[in-house]
């Protein structure tokens, strides 16, 4: 990919992410995303005995319907990181890329830039979480399908995702999003609710 094409993709991805964040993603973009990843999602689903809607929904949310910089330039649809030197990905010498990310954290780390904060009451006491900008290393994939395979491997091998896997295999869509929301996969406290919203956007195009 030449530099000009890469710059165009980055610009498009940034705009798409902004539209997605405010709930304004055009229908044609959603449809294009589903069509582009449906085959890969089905194939990965067969490998791990998981429904394609799980891959498509989670990937759509994480990648702004396939138009994030990570997805466009590096086929990373799920935001998988590669920070630790002991990460098997890094030990194997597989490719990675450094990009900024935004996360909800209980305490900002050195180098974080606090964008906003949220306060909620827990057992009568205020608990503050911070939305920060943070540079991270991310995995690079050769194809979108490789990204889906990695997602399926994670869900089916890490114990904390077992409730979501069980729910997905039963076809209990609402419970799947609830379980993923409380699994710790994402730092966003509203992650499960957002997955449910994305599913409503893509469900009609999945066949």
Secondary-structure map:
Layout: H1 3-21, H2 27-48, H3 52-62, H4 69-74, H5 88-91, E1 96-105, E2 113-122, E3 125-139, H6 144-157, H7 162-170, H8 173-181, H9 191-202
Antiparallel strand pairs: 1-3, 2-3
Helix pairs in contact: 2-3, 2-6, 3-9, 7-8, 8-9
Structure description:
It is a single chain. This protein has 207 residues and is of the alpha+beta class. Helix content is 51%, strand content 17%. The protein contains nine helices and three strands, in the order H-H-H-H-H-E-E-E-H-H-H-H. It has helices spanning 3-21, 27-48, 52-62, 69-74, 88-91, 144-157, 162-170, 173-181, 191-202, and strands spanning 96-105, 113-122, 125-139. The protein has a three-stranded antiparallel β-sheet, with no helix packed on it. A hairpin with a 2-residue loop joins strand 2 (113-122) and strand 3 (125-139). Helix 2 (27-48) crosses helix 3 and helix 7 (162-170) runs antiparallel to helix 8. The radius of gyration is 17 Å and the shape is globular. Residues 1-22 have low confidence and may be disordered.
């Amino acid at each position: 990919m030449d530099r000009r094409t890469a710059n165009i993709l980055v610009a498009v991805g940034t705009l798409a992410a902004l539209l997605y964040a405010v709930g304004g993603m055009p229908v044609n973009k959603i449809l294009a995303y589903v069509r582009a990843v449906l085959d890969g999602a089905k194939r990965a689903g067969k490998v791990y005995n998981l429904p394609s809607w799980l891959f498509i929904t989670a990937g759509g949310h994480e990648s702004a319907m396939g138009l994030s910089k990570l997805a466009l330039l590096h086929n990373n649809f799920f935001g998988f990181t590669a920070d630790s030197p002991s990460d098997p990905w890094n030990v194997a010498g597989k490719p990675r890329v450094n990009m900024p990310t935004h996360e909800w954290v209980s305490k900002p780390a050195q180098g974080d830039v606090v964008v906003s904060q949220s306060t909620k009451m827990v057992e009568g006491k205020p608990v503050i979480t911070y939305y920060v900008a943070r540079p991270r290393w991310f995995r690079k994939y050769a194809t979108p399908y490789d990204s889906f395979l990695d997602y399926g491997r994670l869900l089916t091998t890490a114990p904390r995702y077992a409730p979501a896997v069980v729910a997905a295999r039963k076809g209990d869509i609402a419970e799947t999003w609830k379980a993923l929301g409380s699994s710790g996969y994402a730092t966003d406290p509203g992650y499960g609710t957002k997955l449910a919203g994305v599913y409503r956007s893509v469900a009609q195009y999945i066949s």
